[in-house]
Design goal:
The protein has about 120 residues and is mainly alpha-helical. It has 3 domains: about 35 residues, no CATH class; about 30 residues, no CATH class; about 30 residues. About 45% of the residues lie in helices and about 0% in strands. The two termini are about 20 Å apart.
Length: about 120
């Protein structure tokens, strides 16, 4: 992904003139939206994964063919479709670990190895 970063010293974005260059501002805004698109998609997938959200999920935690894209469910209609909140639990555990690490040994704590 190629990013078009606007410089902090860009006078068009830094200083207010009598009349703003609307064309330049539109171009910059569209470029920013384009550059953030992939990042925003990834953040949405992360949110959905952490909060156990998926297409066809029902409020009663059962599988229903009417909610499925293909109309078929596995292993059978009405089977359990429970959430396993492993991602959320892992994030909370690692966050707590890093917070405790910063409290006890702030000079030795880093998260480089956590993936």
């Amino acid at each position: 992904m190629l990013l078009h970063m606007q410089s902090a010293s860009d006078p068009e974005l830094l200083f207010v003139s009598k009349e703003p260059d609307i064309g330049y501002l539109q171009k910059t805004y569209r470029r920013t939206q384009s550059d953030l698109g992939e990042w925003m998609d990834r953040r949405q997938r992360d949110y959905d994964t952490r909060n156990c959200l998926w297409n066809g999920k029902s409020d009663d935690y059962k599988k229903h063919g009417s909610l499925s894209e293909t109309g078929e469910v596995f292993p059978w209609e009405g089977a359990s479709d429970q959430e396993v909140r492993m991602v959320d639990e892992t994030i909370n555990m690692l966050s707590l670990h890093v917070a405790q690490c910063h409290q006890t040994r702030p000079y030795r704590c880093h998260t480089r190895g956590i993936r």
